[in-house]
Amino acid sequence: MKYFEANFDGLVGPTHNYAGLSEGNVASKQNANAISSPKSAALQGLAKMKALSDLGMIQGVIPPQERPDIYALKRLGFNGTEANILEQAYKKAPSLLAACCSASSMWTANAATVSPSADTDDRKVHFTPANLTNKFHRSLEPEITGNVLRAIFGSDSHFSHHQHLNDNDHFGDEGAANHTRLCGEYGEQGIEIFTYGKHAFNQSMPKPQRYDARQTLEASKAVARLHGLRDEHVVFVQQNPDVIDQGVFHNDVISVGNQNVLFYHEQAFLDHDNFVSDLTEKFANVSSKPLHLIKVATSQVSVEDCVNTYLFNTQIITLNDDSMVIIAPEHCRQNPRVKAYLDSLLAENSPIKEVKYFDVNESMKNGGGPACLRLRVALTQSELEAVNPNCLLTDELYGKLTAWVNKHYRDTLTFDDLRDPQLVIESRNALEELTKIMNLGSVYQFQRM
Ligand code: SUG
Is the dihedral of CA 47, 401, 41, 378 positive or negative? Predict the structure, then answer.
């Protein structure tokens, strides 16, 4: 049987903007109120998807959500016509308007946690949408994410969909951004690493002091239970609270894995030595392949450089010839220390043979690198055949989506533009057309009313 790792990238939505909504996310705060370009953002994302597809990877697309989220504004007490709701929110609660317009569903590493069928008790692929409770603008996403995932992975005999965890900080869950799966081949039993930032019920355990930890141990354990994972195939590890306080708001800003490679910074994990011995032992029980732990020292790359360049928010992909390639943001090439490190990595005898750099600057300015933009789903051949084919990138779909973006998206967007009622109409028209292109059915609220 053949196995694949598919990357499902989030298509950037028509309201992409910089609102400084994410405390603890350095780029989001630094670029607050900058002028965004929704069109360039979406085209940059599509260019990355096309490049991976051209490399022979299975590339999927996850559609954006409906924004402005008029329903959220109504629920919070704004009423009247939609134009009125936007105007009132703009005047009386500008932060709420910004939150309800965020295109943040583009970072699909936070859409859900996915466990492939090789790891689960019932041998189905399991999906749990992330509740994203820690940030208001992101907490608006999970329900529609669930609809969208069902529209893409519809077959009950192959896929199992769970409701997102309880909407409460005790179960704060940020999805695959804090979840890494290591394995020999994608279709073999793997080890799933769940990284958390704090304990919810035991307040005496270490936690960051400056910024909130978004993911709790309790949430990670609940997802592992829901997915039917066995204890011997799961590792729970706490993120180093000090790095969260330096802007590492998700573990995928400081660590990334692929098959038998874990690429990470020496400061990433709280109890590094125990973590490594637990992982090494469990990995050896499921795979005969050697485990490559590529640990980057602070003397090679500082945590600050990691946060500024997203060295670890890279994708490590395996090409058809079994060599591994790092998909990195341009920022890594531009930073001399990080570039020197990556050059030295290529000279080493590791599975990583090449680094390819991509311009995803519109996303980076909100703290989202190449890895934030994708949700990984390891699939068998028959599971792949059960995926909605209109959500898998082909040259034809790429052409259609590029034309769709050029037709519907604005070149620039400022905070003042968010109160424009025309933006609601534009966004709905765009999504209505997109649901037809991707054959999604009625996943959005405006289509169900
Ligand atoms: O949740 N930024 C996102 C970035 C998510 C990155 N994802 C991963 N690391 N996997 C966040 O902080 C900023 C929106 C704004 O400020 O306008 C934002 O939501």
Answer: negative
Residue 104, ligand 1, Cβ within 6 A: yes
The encoded tokens of residue 115 equal 């466990």
CA angle in degrees (0–180, nearest 5) for 431-162-229: 135
What's the DSSP call for residue 445?
A: G
Q: Are 103 and 16 in contact (CB under 8 A)?
A: yes
The reported pLDDT for the residue numbered 40 is 98
Q: Is 19 in the pocket of ligand 1 (CB under 6 A)?
A: yes
Q: Burial code of 191-204, b = ≥16 C-beta within 10 A, e = fewer?
A: bbbbbbbbbbeeee
CA of 368 to the centre of ligand 1 (A): 6
**For the chain, which ranges sit under pLDDT 50?**
none
Q: Is the CB of residue 195 below 6 angstroms from any atom belonging to ligand 1?
A: no
Q: In what side-by-side order are the strands of the sheet with 112-115?
A: 112-115, 125-129, 159-161
DSSP letter at 392 equals B
The reported pLDDT for the residue numbered 1 is: 67
Which active-site residues does the annotation give? 174, 250, 372
Closest C-alpha to ligand 1, atom 1 = 22
d(CA 156, CA 140): 26
Q: Ligand 1: does its nearest atom lie under 6 Å from the Cβ of 108?
A: no
Burial of residue 436 (CB within 10 Å: 0-12, 13-18, 19+) is exposed
Whether 25 is in the pocket of ligand 1, judged by its Cβ within 6 Å, is yes
CA–CA distance, 141 with 150 (Å, rounded to integer): 14
Q: Which atom of ligand 1 approaches the CA of 249 most closely?
A: 9
Q: What is the pLDDT of residue 193?
A: 99
3 state DSSP class of 7: strand
In sequence order, the β-bridge partners of residue 195 are 237
Residue 431: HSE in the Cβ half-sphere, 13 Å Cα cutoff:
27
b/e code 28-45 from CB counts within 10 Å (16+ = b): beebeeeebbbbbbbbbb
Cβ neighbourhood burial of 175 (10 Å; 0-12, 13-18, 19+): buried
Ligand 1 pocket test: pick from 17, 95, 110, 312 the residue with the most ligand atoms within 8 Å of its Cβ: 110
Six token digits for residue 175: 């999805």
State the Cα angle at 125 between 124 and 126, rounded to 5°: 105
